[in-house]
């Protein structure tokens, strides 16, 4: 049996045993799931992005605030230790979505207002000081900025909520801080040429929902265009970059994906935020396989309109997601926490990039 056929059979098997939406989350054989943290009503709710720095976990809580920042409210970014105990709470003006640790400075980058009027807050976890940076110009695509990826000393942002269809404006930009502002230059256009990994066909993209980003083990940028149900891989971003389109599939129909996490170590646990459930879960396995990709996703609505949120192993060659946890409501952010910090042997990227 070839790899593609084996994966298809696995998908059918999982589909036959997966619970319906709204049931208690269920882990497939070999995995376990438990609660890591929950929102606190009246203080912080709706967990989303997760960033990990050594033994500390930072979780951005959206509180259901306006993603354009028009309500003039603030969000909380809660710092935990790996046992799930609160260490510190940061109050950040705006609606937080993207949250990443700069692996070169150890500072936390928090993107605010992903739908419009974006701003960037950089937090020093050592001093707990934070600084606000405005953008030198509004996003060319007409929306905001969402997620962040760091590569070879450069910072990249996804340009979210584009205002045009087709989207002919940048979907990924490179960002530079100049004084108190952020300046950006285009990296990937929303209508860039790409190769479909499944068919090998040349395609023209139309990225209508650029969202989460991460760095692959090969240091390529992996962008999720959530509403388009596809991942975009940018190999060697720059003048000589190449682009791959990865259409997604799952036992629950064509899924909409959020974060993708590449496992950095065999020893540790995965965190995933289930935003409407107001819960961050811990997923364990006896031994993870480094380099394996896990994606948080929501399946297509069934005939009754119900959906299943799940976390699945991602096959980048076929875009297939094989669920390992089902019964979630709508999972979003992911992070990996190493059980033993001294296992970290990546000198250039000592921080979790997911």
In short, what is this structure?
The chain is mainly beta and 354 residues long. Helices cover 4% and strands 50% of the residues.
Give a written overview of the molecule.
The protein is mainly beta and 354 residues long. It has a domain at 1-38 and 248-354. The chain has one helix and 27 strands. It has one helix at 3-17; strands spanning 26-27, 31-38, 47-53, 56-61, 74-81, 86-93, 96-101, 108-112, 119-124, 129-135, 144-151, 154-160, 170-178, 181-189, 193-196, 202-204, 210-215, 221-225, 230-235, 242-247, 256-262, 268-274, 279-285, 293-298, 309-315, 320-328, 331-338. The strands form five sheets. It has an eight-stranded mixed beta sheet, with no helix packed on it. Strands 16-15-20-19-18-17 form a six-stranded mixed beta sheet, with no helix packed on it. The chain is globular and about 45 Å long.
